[in-house]
Specification:
methyltransferase, 6-stranded parallel β-sheet, SpoU_subst-bd, Alpha/beta knot, 2 domains, tRNA rRNA methyltransferase, transferase, 259 residues, 60s Ribosomal Protein L30, Chain: A, Alpha/beta_knot_MTases
Length: 259
């Protein structure tokens, strides 16, 4: 089997104990087809997972480590792999409905061609921590909801809905028409510590190397920058996103928009 086939197959698996635990105890459990556990391992964590699965009538199978290695594309599976139906995407209205249900102004994240699954997983983890209502990604030239993203997110993938759209520029225009302010990132702009993140907002994060595409940048209401006084003039996408999300959380909590 070729490497690419292994990756496409791995996209239907949840890998690792923590990610499996989170999936089993959330709505994600409805998508589980089978729980695979490594034969010979008697760790308490595995027994707990097995009990949870059996209580939900999910089939459990003990298999050799070599089988789990193949399923996980030789990732760190910790003796646990869940076979699932693919992660479902939602539409934009779902994000607005989620914000409305919580009686909060929309708080979205738009990712312009993020390619590293570890970055997306880390971003989802932080987005869940600060109360983001959903993430918007493009269908092309962007990582989707894969098993690596799920594992890196440590369960956040079950709590943060993702919209996958054909055209980010068109979606940005629609967001603005619906009263959402768009904030992008670049080297020159408003210091993020002085940024007013009140109200309905979407934070736009650019590609790891190229940043936000020129056409999308034209749709921004304001550019926010992270000041850097060292030698390196760019931050990892997930780190930059984390800083901006927590600044937005600080402003929104002071304004009473978030708990």
């Amino acid at each position: 089997m070729g490497k690419n086939n292994q990756h496409s197959q791995a996209a239907d698996f949840v890998i690792g104990r923590h990610a499996a635990q989170e999936t089993l105890q959330t709505e994600g459990a409805k998508r589980i087809n089978k729980l695979f556990l490594q034969a010979g391992l008697k760790a308490g964590a595995l027994e707990s997972l097995q009990k949870k699965a059996k209580a939900q009538k999910i089939p459990v199978q003990r298999v050799p480590k070599t089988k789990l290695d193949l399923m996980s594309d030789h990732g760190n599976h910790q003796g646990v792999v869940l076979a699932i139906t693919p992660y479902a995407y939602v539409d934009l209205d779902t994000l607005f409905s989620r914000a409305a249900a919580k009686k909060q102004p929309p708080f979205f994240l738009m990712l312009d061609e993020i390619e590293d699954p570890h970055n997306l997983g880390s971003i989802m983890r932080t987005a869940d921590a600060v109360g983001v209502h959903g993430i918007i990604i493009p269908k092309r030239r962007s990582v989707g909801l894969t098993s690596t993203v799920a594992k890196t997110s440590t369960g956040a993938i079950e709590h943060v809905p993702v919209v996958r759209v054909t055209n980010l520029v068109a979606t940005a225009k629609e967001l603005k028409q619906r009263g959402v302010w768009l904030f992008g990132t670049d080297m020159a702009g408003t210091d993020y510590r002085d940024w007013n993140a009140q109200g309905a907002i979407t934070i736009v994060i650019g590609n790891e190397g190229k940043g936000i595409s020129p056409l999308l940048k034209k749709e921004m209401d304001e550019i926010v920058t992270l000041p850097m006084i060292g030698h390196v003039q760019s931050l990892n996408a997930s780190v930059a996103t984390g800083l901006l999300l927590y600044q937005a959380l600080t402003v929104k909590q002071k304004n009473g928009e978030l708990p």
